[in-house]
Structures are given as structure tokens and as C-alpha cells.
Amino acid sequence: MNVLIPDVLKSYTGTAQVVAEAGTVGELFEWLDEHYPGIRFRVIDEQDRFRRHMRCFVNGIQTFDLGAILSPHDDVVILQALSGG
Fold first, then answer.
1. Rounded distance between C-alpha atoms, residue 25 and residue 28, angstroms
2. Nearest to 76 by CA among 41, 34, 28
3. Which contacts of 12-19 are long-range, i.e. CB under 8 A and separated by 24 or more positions?
4. Which element (helix H / strand E) includes 58?
5. Which domains does the chain have, with CATH numbers?
6. Coil, helix or strand for 9?
7. What pLDDT, on a 0 to 100 scale, did the predictor assign at position 82?
8. Residue 36 φ/ψ, nearest 5 degrees
9. pLDDT tens, per residue, the chain with 85 residues
10. What is the pLDDT of residue 25?
């Protein structure tokens, strides 16, 4: 599957897009961390929840479910939410 990486995490991957293999969203972040150590902690907190400023979209649909099923042809986008006024 294609995974789009936000600018804030490119220091881990060195690129804006990676091709990954995983069966669930949680497995995807484990795969990413295996290949790009430290990236999972920037997105997922110690309670296995998305950090409040991070977003994940699978085929254009936002998910917070680490158990959500993925297929090899999915497009996953990781975004950093902006806040302020």
C-alpha cells in the first residue's frame, strides 16, 4: 500500500511516500517503526491511541481505529493537524 508521509515525519523516512505491507492500521505503524525507528511514537501515544494532533486517512476516510483492516491496494495518508487561531 502507498503511505503518504507528512513533512513533519520526513526526517524519519527521507521521503514523502513509502510502500508498506500491513493487515491493519496498527500493523502499518509497527511496520513503519520497524523500517523507520521512532516514527510510531510520533503518531501513536503510550495508550495506543493517535496523538491528538495526528490524523490518519485510509482511502480518504479518517480512522482512529488501529484494528481497521487494510488491503494491499489502499492509500494511507498521515497528516499533522493544525491548531491555533
1. 5
2. 28
3. 12/36, 12/37, 12/38, 12/39, 12/42, 13/39
4. strand 54-58
5. 2-80 (3.10.20.30)
6. helix
7. 73
8. -135, 75
9. 999 999 999 999 999 999 999 999 999 999 999 999 999 999 999 999 999 999 999 999 999 999 999 999 999 999 998 766 5
10. 98
- The radius of gyration of the chain's CA atoms, rounded to the nearest angstrom, is 12
CA distance 37 to 39: 6
Q: For residues 29 and 32, give the distance between their C-alpha atoms in angstroms, rounded to a whole number.
A: 5
Quick one: pLDDT at residue 84?
60
Q: Can you give the pLDDT at residue 3?
A: 98
In whole angstroms, what is the distance from residue 79 CA to residue 5 CA? Answer: 7
